Amino acid sequence: xxxxxxxxxxxxxxxxxxxRLRVIARxxxxxxxxxxxxxxxxxxxxxxxxxxxxxxxxxRAFYDLSVxxxxxxxxxxxxxxxxxxxxLAAIVGLTIGVLMGRSRRAEDICLPLVSIxxxxxxxxxxxxxxxxxxxxxxxxxxxxxxxSMFPVIYNSWTGVKVVKEIWxxxxxxxxxxxxxxxxxxxxxxxxxxxxxxxxLGLAQAWRILVAVEMLxxxxxxxxxxxxxxxxxxxxxxxxxxxxxIAVIGLCLExxxxxxxxxxxxxxxxxxxxxx
Amino acid sequence: MxxxxxxxxxxxxxxxxxxxxxxxxxxxxxxxxxxxxxLPTIQTIxxxxxxxxxxxxxxxxxxxxxxxxxxxxxxxxxxxLPLGILMARFKPVENFFxxxxxxxxxxxxxxxxxxxxxxxxxxxxxxxxVVFYAATFPMxxxxxxxxxxxxxxxxxxxGAMGADERKLFWKVIVPGAFPFIITGMRxxxxxxxxxxxxxxxxxxxxxxxxxxxxDAKEFLQADIMMASIVVIGVIGFVFERVVFGSIERATxxxxxxxxxAKG
Lengths: 275, 263
Known about the structure:
The structure holds 2 protein chains of 2 kinds.
Chain A: H1 2-9, H2 11-44, H3 55-67, H4 70-102, H5 104-117, H6 126-133, H7 137-161, H8 165-173, H9 178-215, H10 222-231, H11 235-274
Helix pairs in contact in A: 3-11, 4-5, 4-7, 4-9, 4-10, 6-7, 7-9, 8-9, 9-10, 9-11, 10-11
Chain B: H1 2-31, H2 42-54, H3 57-89, H4 91-104, H5 113-120, H6 124-148, H7 152-160, H8 165-202, H9 209-218, H10 222-253
Helix pairs in contact in B: 2-10, 3-4, 3-6, 3-8, 5-6, 6-8, 8-9, 8-10, 9-10
């Protein structure tokens, strides 16, 4: 009896721990395989060591660059640029999008311009921006803002338009003025779409920023780091840069996009519950 | 009647906007506030576009770009589609590839351009590989979620009616996942279209629309730039609307999988 109780009680935490260990092992295993293949190819000397460094070399480059503070400087500059560009896009895009959703006139005026400009890949404008605003910071930030603005506009426009007519009318019937309707009905109703737009905009900004940094000759930035490393065949420094880019991308994905998505799903659930 | 009037007014307003915007642009361009080379008039842009189309240069550039995009895109579909299906059908495959995919997916394709340039030099191969990298993940991811979301009831029903593995795959899983696959293709093409322009600018070869735009900067030829941007926009639009739109109509809509978009 005693034995049976302990037997029943103990496996529970142990198996949970074992389960977690197994999940970790399962996730790490593919990386080990790929890493091992990489190491074998790098050490076999089929390719030049300078062009195809071992993981050890790449790790050392990463360590050296981060100890000297160079990598951090590049990273901070890139993040600031991302924030500046995306912030600008969010403000301008939201304003235009909400206006387009609210007034038929604004919609008629802006929609043709937006639908002509939006489908063109943003990077195609890069040289034009460089000619107009000169190489460097201003061009880079403006480009990122310009490119990531369109998803924000589209989604906030749609969001405001799909707010239910009956909510507006009932709010009006209850005596809400325009401002109140906007703050308490339209904005919460459009929020899921707006958040989706912001998420898409930020993702777009991130994808394009690296290329913009390569082309716009900015003094610091991860894109510039990897592009500059090419001149000196510093493939190891390049790999360190790509690694940081991957980590930032992953963090954006995990801590920003998924959070927003969970939040929107909750909002959507609420909206559905109200119907 | 009222709706029709409203629509006509919208159309007139839209046309007016475009005319006014063009007129403003022309006014600024003619005023000489900015140097003419940096801000060419619409007339100049149109003339440049016409002459580039007439002597066939534009077609060669567009051809080079299309070749790269289509080869890269085809490779991405060739890898992403089977792998996505395998990942969704077989757990061990999913266990092995899913961590890798989720680690590689957030890396912007452009950050690999310098490395590819060192490895494969400048030109077609590098550009195609960048396009391939950019397009593979949306394809893979959408296929995977599409196959996974096939209604299990359909599978069991087909199994109960005596369908073997093969029939199950072709008659149930593939059609069931098709809306997702089409979406994946659309996203993949959009990504590859962006990637090809960027890759051509960075890994400059001698041909390609992205290269033309970037090269024109050296000679302050803003008119050539804008003409190429127009061509890039038109090709992208044609692919999105005509090619993928018609594929969608021929398959998913005909099968009644999704409702037609309203309006």
